[in-house]
Amino acid sequence: MTETVYLDIKGMHCVHCPSKVEKAIAKMNGVNLISVDYKTEKGRVKFDKGLIDISDIIEEIGEVGFDAKRTAK
Hints:
The protein is of the alpha+beta class.
C-alpha cells in the first residue's frame, strides 16, 4: 500500500542540499517519489509501506546529514 508523508527537514544550508537528500532516498527500495524544497525546508515522500517504513527514511536522511521529522502537510 502506498503512503505519502510530509517531512520537516532541517540543516540544509544551500540549494544543493535537497538533491543530496533526494538522491539518497530515491535509491531506497520501496520509495516511489521524494521531493524536497530548500526554501520551505519541507519534503514529501511517497513509498510502499509494505516494503519500507517512514522511520527508515527519516533515519537515512539523518545519515546524509540532516534532521527530519514527520509533519502535517
